[in-house]
Fold PHD-type domain-containing protein.
Amino acid sequence: MFQGFLFVLLLILASNRFFSQSFDATETNSINGIFAFSRRSFNSAHLTWPSPKSNKTLTILALFLSGDIQTNPGPRHQPVYPCGFCELAVSWSPNEEAVCCDECSIWYHRSCLEMCTKDYSLLQRSNVQWLCCRCQTLNISSFTFRNFEISPSFYEPIANENITLESLSPTFNPLFTSSPKSTDQHMSENPTRRSNNSSRSSNKAKFTSSRTSSSAFDLPQKKNLRVMTVNCRSVINKKADLEASINYIKPDVICGSESWLNNNIKSSELFPENYTAYRKDRNTAGGGVFLLVRKDIVSSNQPDLDSDCEILWAKIQLQNKKNMLIGSFYMPHRCNNTIQELNKSLTTITRSSKQKQIILCGDFNCPDISWEIGNVNTCSPDRSTQQSLIDVTESAQLTQVHNSSTRESKLLDLVFTTNPTIVTHSVSVPGISDHDIIVTDFDVKIQYQNKQRRQIYQFARADWESLNDDFNTLSNKINTQYNTGACTESLWSTFKNTLTESIDKHIPSKLSSSRCNLPWLNGKLHRLLKRKRRIYKKAKETNNWTNYKFIQKTCRRSMRKAEWEYINNTITQGLQTNNSKPFWKYIKSRKQDNIGVAP
């Protein structure tokens, strides 16, 4: 009987404690459930000792009265050391490698940064310096998992739900930062999803054509000059992505930045064969710019216009016998020296009265400039440097024509021209790195040159017996001329002309047709790229880039896998049937130069 009264007393005290405070709907439902459970378990006329099931309720009421028990304890919202890219826990594991900034103490998985083992090993040397992409701090002694241990904890009281951690830039190279980003963003409550709180620009790119093509990027039909501006962050790692983008966008000129190349890597190993490649490599870690111009366009490199910065110029010929200069620029860090070198290059161009049309594209890393009104935000940490960029472009009579953000909410990649009236439209499409690709169409007519078709001999249908007879006759003819005292030049002419005539007579041939397709780009990848484009549009509308980053990595892995599977299967099938032609065909396509018989 006493125990029954004790239970009623605890129930009354608990109810008074709860109703004396303000609680939300969840707590109200919990209390109502307790009272309902009590009414089902006891009879008001007979107060007896609660059953074993009711003993649980008595324990809960006693815990509530203690006043120091958190309701609904569970897993913490975020790990103690979340990765700045995937936001999953950075734990102590022999197979897990990560890097940490000395200033902001933010950790990154090595796999999330796509950092090779060699670069990761360099960070453990005391003489290696790297710049943090989040806080712009120069790190001299880096912490890695090989010399620093972390003890993560995965549980915390629910009352600490207001604790937040600033969100970081998605991916960066620790040796050379790609793109600075403001730190006024926070992680989402879900550790596998992140929603950026920064507002995105509402400015829309100029668009005058309503007809769209069936491309996976949903672009208008190409008419005249199309320029593609792309930030690669290592072309070697994104060769398949770049080829797929070129296949759909079909640009005439490609302005690339952050190629991360050196002299040991040939252009034919990475770039399509129907483009002429102009490069300016840093030859150290990071950086580098390049220009790709279609081979049927009359173009030439302009090294005299370059300066001591990462800038590259090429000249293309227009139909009205005028020339247009197209430049690719990259500014890794905002500094006045780079702006001054850019000014030197532009001054050299403007001094020449013949060069009027200028197009300058690239990654300028100046997110705090409002190009519509031509000023810099007052809270910008590098206001003087960014203002210098505005002054330099205005002095060169350059107008910035792209207004859509290129890296989440930041406008980092820019397109300048001296004649903005020729720009038909400029849009952002899903990129191959953490930057979007800019596609800009210009209403100018280019001077195309007729592409010479190659003559391909069909040796399988050759008349070898007639060839042997001709070669025997040729041998006797050369011996006769040699015995009569003919000179070397005469003997060479006889040999070359007779050999060429015999080959053309007894070996059938055909002219090559120009086809620029990717055989490994199948229907599955085409649908995957269309899905990537739809998720990209949704991410720009909702400002939630988590799904887009996931599909971007999926596309990258799928295209790499499809390309290598196609190459391996083609070569393997040929070798299994004792046919080495597929192997040598692939080797020939990777050659830098086509060396033939001397004239």
In short: The chain has twelve helices and 23 strands. The radius of gyration is 34 Å. The longest helix spans residues 546-576.
